[in-house]
Amino acid sequence: MKEFKGKILFLDRSDINTDEIIPAKYLTEIEKTAMKPHLLEDLKLDGFDSGIDIKDKAIIVTRENFGCGSSREHAPWALEENGIAVVIAPSFARIFRQNMYNCGMLAIELSQDRINTIFNEFGKATAQISVDIEASEIVIQSKDQIKTIEFKISEFDKTLIQTGGWVEYADMHY
Amino acid sequence: MGKTIAEKIFKTHLVDEPFGDVNVLKLDMVFCHEITTPTAIQDLVNRGKDRVFDPKKIKAVIDHVTPAKDSKTAMQGKILREWAKRHGIKDFFDIGQNGVCHAIFPEKGFVRPGFTIIMGDSHTCTHGAFGAFAAGVGTTDLEVGILKGVCTFKTPQTYKIEIVGTLSKGVFAKDIILKVIKELTVNGATNMVIEFRGNIVDEMNMDQRMTLSNMAVEAGATSGICLPDMTTVDYLWKFIKDDYSSRQEALEVFSRFRSDDDAVYTKLKTIDVSDLVPLTTFGYKPDNVKSVSQMKEIRLDQVYIGSCTNGRLEDLRIAAKVLKGHTISKHIRGIVSPATPKIFSQAMKEGILKIFMDSGFCVTNPTCGACLGMSNGVLADSEVAAATTNRNFNGRMGKGGMVHLMSPATAAASAIKGEISNSNLYCE
Ligand code: SF4
Which domains are assigned to chain B? Predict the structure, then answer.
């Protein structure tokens, strides 16, 4: 199981699509490692510089409908290759969300209000999150405050994460 | 309590419900192309699981970049080609026989009402036009589909969209689906199945229904389903005539999947298209939609007619009708890619390709090509294209490029004028 812990990358925009996460021109790569330098390189977002802002980050906090568009699993791979194994948002596109869990990564849905709170209270600071899957809790921490937020994770998603993904599970059971 | 078509398909394909709302479904078809499948193949090989559940239920095509444009795309083709050979996958379409996946697989008769289909491609929802549950998936789901012939989905919630009224001349299925996406927004149907209903859908042929179902995912939907009817049976008849004694009998069998009158829907919407005008997109999201007449002096560099949305025979016929006797604007690069070899040769026979060429268009082989900005007409920075494709995301057709989505009629008219404009087929 992966480590779900680390610094937050805030992406304050809704509908960030998979072409922005990893452009189609890199889909000719067969090796996941080739995705690493290109994560979010086409993202249109004021003040965001993919070359600088991604470094050292482990968790993305963003707005609605993250991962819409193409079905490419290269999007979670590009995150994974950069050490990002968790995305927290009010909602996800279906295929992207499924791809995340299938790869043993976390796509956590929190209410709009909760996301607003995280942006407002931690968005400007250097903040950290650690995720406790067993307790279904995330703990957010900055220099001067700490906050615990519960989240929902289905038994199935939990099992996928714990058994190392859907391929192993399915081959065992079907 | 009645059931929707999606619920009926789920019920007949359910293998397991291991946890809560997780349905493991048996798959009737797994479709593959050369962009997302090689990574799945590679991973299966690495895991020591290089197997396929049933070579007859796996169909594969090289369509996104064909002919290969460089060593990397050549390698993707090679991996798929060798895998198909090694596992006896007979329905593998390589150069000369290949076309855009969501056009060629229905054309070959691989889709049936009531089928479950997955593919590592978000526009797999296209096949819902036949009354199938067809959904795009990522590489891992595709791998498991290939290996075990199953996939998991949540119990479907259905968004019933009734499209009613009478359509004006020069307004097409593409305009309707752009209108639907505008109303629903890009995530209005996330995790839902759209069921397209209403007299307009009943009157549509299969090409038009495929255009509609194709873009369901642009509103976030898992699949976009039209109910099977006599139009579906007629389209499929040449493939199924040995299985049924008459078209009527086939219709009766397929009709078992039609939604019941008292089916329960999560959401409902009725859209009257009587006043609908030709539409186009203006931003980087498919729900940024305006009427063509509101788009003043949008100068274009390229017009692209093709793709799984609008590269079918009827689309080419309509565009040719607009282009006939005209030449496209001097500064426009016109590119048309008939979606399959069959469409290509029929368009040649009907003189459609000559009309395109006489007007100044370049006719390319069937391929996804410029649709996803990988080959065959990639845009340069700050260039603007009109396209009959389905996605206008930033950078979709090339970094820094802008794409306006529209119907083939509007695209052809825009090519003549050199800027976005209504076609002469449209009577205001
Ligand atoms: S034509 Fe475009 S949208 Fe359709 S399958 Fe090909 S790349 Fe995808």
Answer: 5-270 (3.30.499.10), 285-425 (3.30.499.10)
